[in-house]
# Entry
Amino acid sequence: MAIKTSTRPDSGPDRTVLVIYGTRPEAIKMAPVVRELAASPFFRPVVAVTGQHRSMLDQVNNLFGIVPDVDLDVLQQGQTLAGVTTRSLGGLEAAITEIQPHIVIVQGDTTTTFTGALAAFYLGVPVAHLEAGLRTNDPTSPFPEEINRRLTTQLADLHLAPTPTSRDNLLAEGVKPDTVLVVGNTVIDSLLWVVKEPVPKDDPLLAELERNASGDRPVLLVTAHRRESWGEPMRNIGKALAQLATERPDLLIVFPIHRNPTVRGAIMPAVSGLTNVVVSDPADYTAFAHLMSRATIVLTDSGGVQEEAPSLGKPVLVMRDNTERPEGVDAGTVALVGTDPRRIVDGVGRLLDEPAAYAAMAEAVNPYGDGGAARRSVAALAHYFGLGPPVDEFVPRFRPPVGPATIGVPRQARTAVGRSASRASTGATDDHQPVQVNQIHPERT
Ligand code: UD1
Ligand code: UDP
# Structure
């Protein structure tokens, strides 16, 4: 059922909250806030998406039943940063001018985040920033996200920090303490919701796992997309995967690959034809959550995946040299391996070969959320407008809130790696038709 956003009757004192997002991770992290706003007696949510992503965004909106009120549809294949910025800024200025919200809320550190905050600031509309205060202190990594989130901090009136560390980053930069609240990360709200959803019956990647990775066959789940890794670092990720696949035929590597053609162009030549590497179009969020649950190890450069996988008791190797999410590293559940093939191969190999090393990471804690981040965020908005009391902050719990989960497919006899993967269907196109191993489709725009 669709969430009612602007269709709610305008009942007098309701404050209009314009929720702006544009990419897959923002959608995943904003969805619980939209739900909470829609249920609040104080607010009337209006959703504006830039469409910086298209099918990857639509997948999430469909899953959560969110029908955007405004869709700028800015995506272009191979879009430049300036192109997304100018198209989004102009479109959002018009949307804010028309909607006249009491406040705008943006999430994270994408171009949509920054332009949403800037457009609101230019029009004198207050800005709430969800997932505020993440920092690497390196303007080139992640690029351009470190600068996007710093600029957004300058524009925001209310800073909803996910963890005490992110709050401290903001305070160290001189942000006023009474404008900062630790709420937890809404990604955990979404994850806790999605893992309770039924295992999708028709998902090609899950079907592939059911056929070829029942029992205890090790599964390496991979995602990669970071702009600072384009070029040689991304090609090195491909080389590392090829080496792992060749040296370890029992390992099944599953890679629902980002739709960015630059990413695909760097990775695909290295892994094409390897029968134990399954590359597909991006997985639906429900399917991806179940893939994480089934994975033995998660190898990623994603921010959101770094936050989610530890909740499922999965070791995460991060293909970056730094992270704005030090909590997972401090807790022992996340390790940085960079993009050097040797470090990636050694990192995966150690977890596969040394049970003690694996257990140490899989047993680790989750400091990112408890499922109450959206509730606290909306309560913080109510407090901001003088409509509700001060909000109790999120205090990290030092136990995984979800716990190790299983994928929910029946155990069955193990199939030989080469035979099974080479005949498998693995990819999802936009219309959910299966494609063959290593065949993936460009976005239709
Ligand atoms: C963007 C964000 C990044 C975030 C990531 C999440 C910026 C600058 N980057 O990076 O912070 O971590 O999203 O995935 O805001 N494409 C499609 N269909 C889609 C999505 C993308 O075809 O649904 C292709 C297009 O060719 C597009 C390209 O991917 O031009 C890059 O998309 P873009 O949003 O510019 O950058 P991302 O690398 O996705
Ligand atoms: N995700 C997904 N399908 C996939 C890969 C990832 O639904 O095939 C989800 C994942 O669970 C996480 C989010 O997308 O919530 C992360 O998005 P991404 O890595 O694109 O962006 P980042 O978090 O790095 O900004």
